[in-house]
C-alpha cells in the first residue's frame, strides 16, 4: 500500500459552490494508483465539501436558496455574530453539509458518477482563500 498527501488552496468568490473536481482528480491520477481511497478535508468552520450534480446550474441555485431558508442570515437569531450576520449561519451550513469526503479510486480514477462533481461550498458572503487537505491510500 502507498500513501500520498497534499494541501490545495482554492479562492472562492463568496457564498456559493465552486467545483474543484478537476484539480483533485488530476492530483489523484498523478499518484499512479489503480485502487484506493481519497479523503478530502476542508480546514475551515464556515465552508464545507459536498458531491453534487455538475450539469444543471439550477441545482446550485436551489441549494443556495434552500440553505438561505434553513439557516437564515438574521443576526437576532444567533448569539454568535462576531463577524457579521453571515457568521453563525455559515457555521450551521458547514455542520449540515460536512467538512470531509471519501471517494473510492477504481481503475486509477475517482469513482464519481456521470453527473457528480466535488464542490467547495463557501458559506460566507466575502471571498475567501480555503485550504483542502487531501490524502490518498492505495496500490
UniProtKB/TrEMBL annotation:
Superkingdom of source: Bacteria
Pfam families tied to this protein: YjbQ
Database matches in InterPro entries: UPF0047_YjbQ-like, YjbQ-like_sf
Record's signal peptide: none
Family, as annotated: Belongs to the UPF0047 family.
PANTHER family found in the cross-reference section: UNCHARACTERIZED PROTEIN YJBQ-RELATED, UPF0047 PROTEIN C4A8.02C
Alphabetized NCBIfam families for the sequence: TIGR00149_YjbQ
Name the record gives this protein: YjbQ family protein
